[in-house]
Amino acid sequence: MADRKAHIFRDGGESKGLSVRKLMRNAGTYAILTLGALIAVAPFIWMISTSLMSIGEAQGVRFFPTEIHLENYLLAWKEAQFAEYFINSVQITAITLAGQLTFSVLAAYAFARIDFPGRDLIFGVLLSTLMIPAMVIIIPNFLTVTWLGRIGPIKWINNWPALTIPFMGSIFSIFLLRQFFAQIPDELFDAAQMDGAGHFRFLLTVVIPLAKAPLMVIVVLSFMGAWNALAWPLLVTNSPDWRPIAVGLLNFVDEAGQMLNLMMAGAVITIIPILLIYFFTQKQFTESIARSGLKG
Amino acid sequence: MHEPASSPMKDNLGMRWVQWIQSRFSGRRGRRLKEYLTAYLMIFPAVLLIFIFGIFPVGFALYVSLHKWRLKRGDFIGIDNYVRAVDNLIYVLLFALAIGALVAAFFFLRRLKRDFENWGASPWLLTLPAVAHTAAVFAFIRWTVLLLPQVLDIANIIVGLEKTRALFFELLGDAFRAETVLPAFRLFILLLILSIGLLFIGRRFWRSIHNIVVQARLTMILLAASIGFFLLWFTYMEAMRSYRETLQAGGTPDLWAQVITISSGVVLLVFAWLTWRGAEKQESDRAFWIRVLGTMFLLVGGWVLIGELPMVIAAGDKDMWAGLKITIFYSLGTVPFQLAISLFLAVLLFQQLAGSEFFRMLFFLPYVTPFVASAAVFRQMFSVRPQAPVNQALQFLGLEPLRWIQEPQGVLMMLGERLGVALPAWAAGPSLALVVVMIYSIWVYVGYDTVIYLAGLGNISTELLEAAEIDGAGRWQIFRYIIFPLLSPTTYFLSLIAVIGTFKAFSHIWVMRHELALGTVDTFSVTIFLEFFDKVRYGYASALAFVLFAIILGLTVINNRIQGSRVFYG
Known about the structure:
The structure holds two protein chains of two kinds.
Chain A lengths: L1 H10 L8 H32 L3 H5 L11 H8 L3 H32 L5 H10 L5 H18 L8 H5 L6 H11 L4 H9 L4 H12 L1 H17 L2 H6 L8 H11 L4 H21 L1 H11 L4
Helix pairs in contact in A: 2-15, 4-15, 5-9, 5-12, 5-14, 12-16, 14-15
Chain B lengths: L1 H24 L1 H39 L1 E3 L3 E4 L3 H7 L2 H31 L7 H32 L6 H13 L3 H25 L5 H38 L6 H27 L3 H22 L2 H7 L2 H33 L5 H13 L2 H11 L7 H8 L14 H9 L12 H27 L3 H9 L4 H12 L1 H17 L2 H6 L11 H10 L4 H29 L4
Antiparallel strand pairs in B: 1-2
Helix pairs in contact in B: 1-2, 2-23, 3-23, 4-8, 5-6, 5-7, 5-8, 9-10, 12-17, 12-20, 12-22, 13-17, 20-23, 22-23
């Protein structure tokens, strides 16, 4: 169907084979698309090429390096502590995901498949929190987290709990999974019940293996969220111990802005994991963002 | 005789408990109970976390915003923080909110009445339990508000002491038993019991599956109405307090004059809008023109009264209004361009030439990249150094290098200077630094908008396009008269997301802001963050955050209304 539509757009219905006019028209389209793509990609090219320059070249007017200085990456990784930030971010993402996936799967299953009193009310209240802008809740959450750190056995500020626990309850993930779980046919559950399986067995052996696609979407979105987060980590970290990579990069920009080549190497290091995920899961990735309308 | 019996008795009791529990969970009813328990256990962790970090903070932020609060909690100061932000406008807003709550209560009530007529029943006596539920809700809120400071203080007491669980629970117990808290708690429990009791009695009184829902709806109505009346009273009291304080300080209070003029101005504008809507529906020409004339008069009247607004704005917080102005500039400078470019690209990509997938992937790349990294790169590209790429390009074209992210001057002003025209200060336009942020934003979001537009294009029915084709419509005509109108839901969705996005925007602006730009890129969100992070004014920052919340909610409501009347769903 898409092809038929495309066909109308392409050559006005009738013509077959290559006509000069069609080629010209397509050449125009390609020219515009290429220009757009160049604008989209130029900052990346500049970033990569600067990251390979010597510091003198990086501050000069050259667009491409005369000599490839791969050691910039090593310097950024080791001396500028990007290794530490990188590991921090990976840890933060892993802890957040572990909690978020567990809690969201459980809650989504209950919301989708068990009819309990107050279900719709609770779900509606949870959904309404999506309307609240982050700036409203960031201040009280900072106070809450400080309080928890003072009274509790573990530190919250400058430690993993402040960076991970608030993100473990995600109504967005619950919503996404619930939509999917609700589509699983009842017959499957009835069959499982015949075999004596309860809700948990059914969830573990049937539902989760079926829900790989939405789970993947949540993993990707959480990963991006953790990689993008800036305001909250700025508030709750004040030393490199648990500083995630975005805050690390920002600090580097503020403190060592002169060392352009190292800064760009740091930016490339920050971007690489996200780009890898993007290239490998391109289709789901684009769709998941398009459907959710959010990033981080 | 007692001695030997005691242990079997105990066992017996234990057994009976076990049996009782087993009996509860066996049979059909028991199974259902077990099912419910399982469900509640499953949702518990997620709901708890979302409550603590997503719902409770809204109330907490409101609480903070009503206090003088720098690192530590200071005095309760009512709505002074809001007055500082938007001056006397806050009374108008609160008044509007109160009226809104009352109107909502009225509409809920009307709908309920209609449902009653449909069911052929009039269980108005259920208002009684609803009153109890409402009272219980308010008692609960009162209790938490009184308890909160006590619980917060635990953290201050515990500092320096050895942290043990026993100590914490002792302190927590003290907080719950505090003089002010305990009576409130008792009142809450009393009302809760009353409410639950009446809930079940109410069920006896009217046997219907709608019973609980009707009780809930009546409670909603009562809640909305009492909030409305409370707000009216509260606004009046606060306004009177401020009035007296100004008088005592020897000033001439302009509060009531301003509040009344602005409110009536708003009311006149609303009437103007309603008359205009009526004019559109009129059949005869004469009726139409009379309506239009009326609209004009009302509009002029409305604006004359709203002329008071600049004075209120001047009395409010300059940083906040500047933030709002910058955000509006930012919206106007990004959203239309972003949408136009992406619609164009989407139509081109939709032709599905060889390699469209590849192009789509490249366009999407900026959106995928972490904001901090790409903003850092833009910061360097648009750096003040003459060797920076963008300045290089300018020099290549024979132009002077610019100061880009460090330039606080308005672009129109700069353009005027180049052309030898002196523009007044109000026409300076967004600063060049802000324009860099806009360029960045467009660069980032075009890919996202393109993907959404492509999805929208995929939903257009082929038959329609074919029919147009057969009728001899050209490519432009097909776009103008078929594709563009059919895409209007997508356009509205994207513009709402984008405009709200500019109000929420933070990360990239934070990375790109330079001190020498003199705060000309500080949008509303950034202003809030600065109040909180740099100036450590928690109370005031929370008040500003609520103003932002109100703006976003307002935008959403307006957009929904427009969407309802203007967007064409094919």
